[in-house]
Amino acid sequence: MSSREQILARVRAAVAGAPEVRIPRDYRTTGAEAGRVERFAERVRDYKAVVHVVPAAEVAATVADALSRRGARRLVVPDGLPERWLSAAPSVERLVDDPPLTAALLDAADGVITGCAVAVAETGTIVLGTGPGQGRRALTLVPDYHLCVVLDEQIVPSVPEAVARLDPARPLTWISGPSATSDIELNRVEGVHGPRTLEVVIAL
């Protein structure tokens, strides 16, 4: 008998005859619909990300202004990103991921622009699911600047509602603000495992 089998046998013996315990599954699965966009914007700002809340018709101009302020001239653009989002920035060089961009090319880019799969108002989290306009995970983890466009209808109140919209077979990237970590002395370091700057355009 292996060590694993011995341990499991002891556990079974210890719980033999114990009454069955009912585990309640009545936890909250929905959140408040009212004010979800404002709540999402507030949470994202709390993470020290730059946030713009604009009408859908102003997304292109807002994106162009953001890229201009950043001085971004070479931008990673995943396949399937709506063309209209970059229509006001014709001078920006677009780096497409076909053939796949190397880590060196991604690192040399001025940033990346994406859409998202879903966003969570309660936590200020953006989820990328490698779908159209999102690209593979490396596209948003290597560049130092990430500009993300989030549509009003993509914002859900709670995490369970976000999970219900996602495809579990796809690689998922959950983003809660710019990349940052702290060591045991609480020294904050940014950009270790993702972009140091996150800018979000919320389209109403």
Low-confidence stretches: none
What is the first-to-last residue Cα distance? Answer: 63 Å
CATH superfamily: NagB/RpiA/CoA transferase-like
What's the CATH topology name? Answer: Rossmann fold
What's the order of the H and E elements? HHEHEEHEEEHEEHEEEE
Secondary structure: number of strands? 12
Task: Please state the average pLDDT score.
Answer: 90
- Write down the CATH class: Alpha Beta
Strand content: 15-25%
Query: Oligomeric status of the shown chains?
Result: single chain
Q: Rg, please?
A: 21 Å
Lateral arrangement of strands in the main beta sheet: 1-12-7-4-2-3
Shape: globular
Q: Which structural class matches the secondary elements?
A: alpha/beta
Please give the share of residues in helix. 25-40%
Pfam families: LUD_dom
Domain LUD: 38-202
Organism: Sphaerisporangium album
InterPro entries: FTHF_cligase-like_sf, LUD_dom, NagB/RpiA_transferase-like
Task: Briefly characterize the structure.
Residues 38-202 form the LUD domain. The chain has 204 residues and is of the alpha/beta class. Helix content is 26%, strand content 23%.
